[in-house]
Design brief:
Elements (H helix, E strand, L loop, with lengths): L4 E7 L7 H10 L6 E5 L8 H9 L5 E4 L2 H4 L3 H14 L3 E4 L13 H38 L15 H9 L5 H8 L3 H10 L1
Parallel strand pairs: 1-2, 1-3, 3-4
């Protein structure tokens, strides 16, 4: 069976654009039909297209990624997956943005050592960046809350006729469900509002 070249592309969200990575894959000669794309976080490797790629991968094949952070952002898992691909699957990996991370050609001991050191360093940087982003998000949310910014949906305004329906509900003239329907809110919202009174 002829050795195949596969591309792996990842963006963190559905809104992000994968075009730059796709252009790099095409320029490197990866056939479009053998490029696997996940629109998912890089915190772990439980991604559908990545798993599909691993099932397709055979000895002598090559996996191409644009950069190590597109591969993943968890230090331990990047190292584990790298070893799984290169040692268990006996396939090669090419990281386009880092020519030192190209396992296609037989390397001497020094070359392998340098590749391992670079991989560990870049994996560490990728995870540190993920943790920094997460910390910034937490700090940003805390700062926004301190400024009085409210998160979540905008609170509903009680309609003018709400109070007359609350009175009717307490007098037993109407059910909570019927009152809620007439003022255009959910049953639970009506009950919560009348409790808040």
């Amino acid at each position: 069976m002829e050795n195949q070249m596969y591309g792996y592309v990842r963006v963190s969200t559905k809104e992000q654009n994968e075009v730059r990575q796709m252009i790099a894959m095409n320029a490197f000669g990866v056939p479009r039909e053998r490029i696997y794309l996940d629109k998912q976080s890089g915190k772990d490797f439980n991604r559908p297209q990545y798993r599909k790629l691993m099932r397709q991968l055979h000895k002598g094949d090559t996996v191409v990624v644009k950069s190590i952070d597109r591969f993943g952002r968890n230090y331990d898992e990047i190292i584990e997956q790298w070893r799984y691909i290169t040692r268990e699957k006996e396939a090669a990996i090419v990281v386009l943005d880092m020519p030192l991370l190209d396992t296609r050609h037989g390397r001497d001991l020094t070359g392998t050592l340098i590749a391992d050191i670079v991989l560990q360093l870049l994996s560490y940087v990728a995870q540190t960046e993920r943790e920094t982003i997460h910390q910034r998000q937490i700090e940003g949310i805390a700062a926004a809350k301190a400024r009085g910014v409210r998160f979540g949906p905008k609170p509903l305004k009680r309609p003018d006729n709400f109070y007359s329906y609350v009175q009717a509900y307490h007098n037993g003239e109407i059910s909570a469900r019927a009152a809620a329907q007439r003022i255009g809110v959910s049953h639970t919202t009506f009950l919560r509002w009348q409790r808040e009174l």
